[in-house]
Design brief:
The complex is a heterodimer.
Chain A lengths: L8 H35 L2 E2 L7 E2 L7 H5 L1 H32 L6 H13 L2 H11 L6 H7 L12 H30 L2 H9 L4 H12 L1 H16 L3 H6 L11 H10 L4 H26 L7
Antiparallel strand pairs in A: 1-2
Helix pairs in contact in A: 3-7, 3-10, 3-12, 4-7, 7-10, 8-9, 10-13, 12-13
Chain B lengths: L1 H17 L11 H6 L2 E7 L3 H17 L3 E7 L6 H10 L6 E5 L2 H8 L6 H6 L9 H4 L12 E7 L1 E5 H7 L10 H10 L2 E2 L5 E7 L4 H10 L16 H15 L7 H7 L3 H6 L3 E6 L3 H4 L7 E4 L11 E8 L6 H11 L2 H7 L10 H6 L9 H11 L11 H17 L5 H18 L3
Parallel strand pairs in B: 1-2, 1-3, 7-8
Antiparallel strand pairs in B: 3-10, 4-10, 5-8, 5-9, 6-7
Helix pairs in contact in B: 1-3, 1-16, 3-16, 10-11, 19-20
The chains are: A mainly alpha, B alpha/beta.
């Protein structure tokens, strides 16, 4: 039988003061995060042009309207392409770079700083820089390629290359963040385990595969989840470099949400689209947790 | 440059006062103006130089209306300006007076959030016949309203690099040109290297609605039906747009949208850097070409079947929820009156909306000629509204632009793009019950 636990009056006072101390953060989170989230859920069942009172439309935003919205599915497909290419490429690149930089080679500190610089820059600046690097006529990239006999690729103006270009810019921008997290993880692996592996006759690659990778799994998992979330939210780089073009080649889902909300003033439908994207990200993260996050701890 | 410009605006403002060019409206004495009081907020977007213009106009306004306080609210990004204003309106904190791009006028009017200014104008016996029809008509004037009062306007024109034309021995274009002559000029001004790669385009044409509708109108085309309710597939429009897109995709004497994305800059950059001999734009080009290293001229779009030209403009709207409508109206009236117009046009960003001020030419910049003024006036006298609609953002910014960009890229024909756009647009209009 459950008995009501008597709370020590001193502990009760401590609890009270505990809540008081976290109140500012709690209130701010409620106002700026929770309420807007709930409000957007409410709006997703409404038709609202920001001026006239919201009109309840039930599930219409999720059903008829969304089903007929060809642009949304094009954008969703492009976002999926972006994610499925950029996540593995970005995570693998981050693991390799982090592993190399976590060693005791000369100059790693300098390289760690250099690789982190893009993270500190705004996406707008990064996009502008890459627009010029990838310029079809005067870009440095094409100039470099011309030495190998490759001429005049229109990186952002040709639908065959535009998505890949946007993906590479995204990876370049986020690489430093992922690398810093993974360097910390690799450095956390006890040296004794590498030594034990060496005694067992493991070579460099085997140490990486059988010691470093499994022991850094929680961090790799974290980096992967963050990459999934970021890739589904890709927007600014597209807005700045291709505006969704050429044609529909790089129209991604957040760009379409932005247009619905702030160009067509259809806040209800934009909210519904946001919730669909949220559900997709949520499902992928859950799947990742279920299959990828298993046996994370080796302590 | 900014200092010079600011000084110019200030001296223009001082000149206005010195020579006593004060607009006197019937029935409103200087004493009445002095007694009028209140506080209004005026929201606008714009480059930093435009802030100086607002300050100069407000300063002049306060000389006549010393008891009306105007709070200037500079919203830096034009792109998000409408969202900002709509958010404020829905939050009950609308600015009393605010900028409104031409396409937004029917949208705001349809939402019922702006005051009809016509009763105010009539009460003050304002002489609206001194304003260009091209800015009154889109504001609902012919339907008995004035949902916004244009503060400056511009026709779209073709700017050309005189030095390049001299070098190529090609005659400067003038407003007598037709489509064929336009194409010949673009081809003549295009240069290629030994491998056949274009090193200089005849023109870097704008691929957006202002240029598209201009070229369509010059061919006698239309976008919406007579009632302005449905998008139509007009053969003249299709023909004009196909001609326009072929310059890039068939004749290779113009850039297409993919070329521009690949280059990473805008059409003005292509013109300024010498990559194109001609470029399209409104009066604001005068401002953007201030630091242009060369000589340029401008003329009308080529005229094929019709001389009509639409005007682009920025207007001032008054929030329906304003607590100080009288003061807000006095400010709008002053801004769009003679003194305000003369100060405002000194930036080179737009042209006056009053016929008398436009025709006087006092707003023209140093070095501009009577001949150029005549080119502009020719278009002001022959205007036709853009196909404005309360669902513009969806119809034109999304559906029309998306479909037509495919034609501009050479992926489909203008006629097919037009058919697709009309089908999609009209289905949307049915869906939303318009």
């Amino acid at each position: 039988m459950k008995t009501r636990q008597k709370v020590n009056p001193i502990k009760k006072g401590e609890n009270f003061w505990g809540y008081v101390f976290i109140a500012p953060n709690l209130i701010a989170t409620a106002i700026f995060v929770l309420i807007p989230i709930l409000f957007s859920l409410y709006m997703s069942f409404m038709k609202w042009d920001m001026i006239n009172p919201p009109e309840f439309v039930g599930l219409a935003n999720f059903t008829e309207k969304m089903m007929r919205d060809e642009q949304f599915f094009i954008a969703l497909k492009n976002t999926a392409v972006y994610s499925f290419i950029s996540i593995p490429l970005g995570v693998v690149a981050a693991i390799l770079v982090a592993y190399v930089l976590s060693g005791d080679l000369r100059g790693t500190t300098v390289f760690r700083s250099i690789i982190f610089i893009p993270v500190t820059l705004s996406m707008i600046s990064v996009s502008m820089i890459w627009k010029w690097l990838l310029n079809g006529d005067y870009g440095v990239v094409n100039y470099f390629l011309s030495f190998f006999g490759i001429d005049g690729i229109s990186w952002l103006g040709d639908e065959r290359y535009a998505m890949m270009s946007v993906i590479l810019i995204g990876i370049w921008k986020s690489l430093g963040f992922n690398v810093v997290i993974l360097i910390a993880a690799f450095k956390d692996v006890p040296k004794s385990l590498y030594e034990a592996a060496a005694l067992d006759g493991a070579n460099g690659f085997q140490k990486f595969k059988n010691v470093a990778l499994p022991l850094s799994a929680p961090s790799i998992f974290f980096v992967t989840v963050m990459s999934i979330i970021n890739s589904f939210q890709v927007f600014d780089v597209v807005y700045m470099t291709t505006q969704g073009g050429p044609g529909d080649a790089t129209r991604v889902v957040y760009y379409w949400i932005y247009q619905n909300a702030f160009k067509f003033f259809d806040m209800g439908y934009a909210s519904a689209l946001s919730w669909i994207v949220f559900i997709i990200i949520f499902v992928f993260t859950m799947l990742q947790m279920k299959f990828g996050g298993r046996n994370q701890s080796y302590d | 440059m900014r200092k010079k410009l600011t000084a110019g605006i200030c001296s223009m403002a001082m000149l206005m006062t010195t020579i006593g060019t004060v607009t006197v409206i019937a029935g409103e004495s200087a004493e009445d103006k002095k007694n009028m009081s209140g506080e209004i907020t005026f929201s606008f977007w714009g480059i930093p130089e435009e802030v100086a213009v607002q300050e100069a106009i407000t300063e002049e306004f306060n000389k006549e209306y010393p008891n009306i306080k105007v709070n200037l609210d500079h919203v830096s990004g034009a792109a998000d300006f409408n969202t900002t204003i709509l958010t404020r309106i829905s939050g009950g904190t609308a600015p009393d007076v605010f900028y409104m791009g031409e396409v937004m006028v029917p949208i705001y009017a349809d939402k019922g959030v702006v005051e009809d200014l016509l009763p105010y104008a009539e009460q003050d016996s304002l002489d609206l016949s001194d304003y260009w029809d091209g800015v009154l008509s889109p504001a609902g004037y012919h339907d008995g309203h004035l949902w916004a009062f244009a503060k400056d306007c511009t026709p779209y024109m073709i700017y050309y690099n005189k030095d390049m034309f001299d070098e190529a021995g090609v005659a400067y274009p003038d407003s007598s040109w037709d489509f064929e002559k336009f194409k010949e000029t673009c081809i003549a001004m295009t240069q290629t290297d030994d491998n056949g790669k274009v090193t200089r385009y005849g023109i870097a044409p704008e691929n957006g609605w202002p240029a598209w509708f201009n070229i369509a109108y010059k061919n006698g085309g239309k976008i919406l039906d007579e009632e302005g309710k449905r998008m139509v597939v007009d053969p003249n429009t299709a023909e004009a747009l196909q001609f326009y897109f072929d310059l890039a995709n068939v004749e290779h004497c113009a850039t297409n949208p993919d070329d521009m994305t690949s280059m990473g800059g805008g059409e003005i950059d292509a013109f300024k850097s010498g990559l194109a001999s001609m470029v399209i734009g409104g009066r604001f080009m005068t401002y953007f070409l201030k630091d242009f290293d060369g000589n340029y001229g401008f003329t009308t779009f080529p005229i094929e079947k019709s001389e009509v030209a639409p005007l682009n403009f920025v207007a001032l709207g008054m929030a329906k929820d304003s607590n100080n409508k009288e003061a807000a109206w006095e400010f709008i009236k002053f801004y769009c009156g003679k003194t305000g117009q003369e100060i405002n046009s000194a930036t080179g960003m737009g042209m006056p909306v009053m016929k008398s001020v436009t025709e006087s030419g006092v707003w023209m910049l140093e070095g501009e000629t009577q001949e150029q003024l005549d080119v502009i006036l020719k278009q002001f006298n022959n205007t036709k509204d853009h196909p404005f609609h309360p669902e513009w953002m969806k119809l034109m910014d999304d559906i029309f632009a998306r479909n037509m960009t495919e034609a501009a890229r050479g992926k489909t024909t203008a006629l097919e793009a037009l058919e697709n756009a009309a089908e999609e647009a009209n289905a949307y209009l049915e869906e939303v019950g318009r």
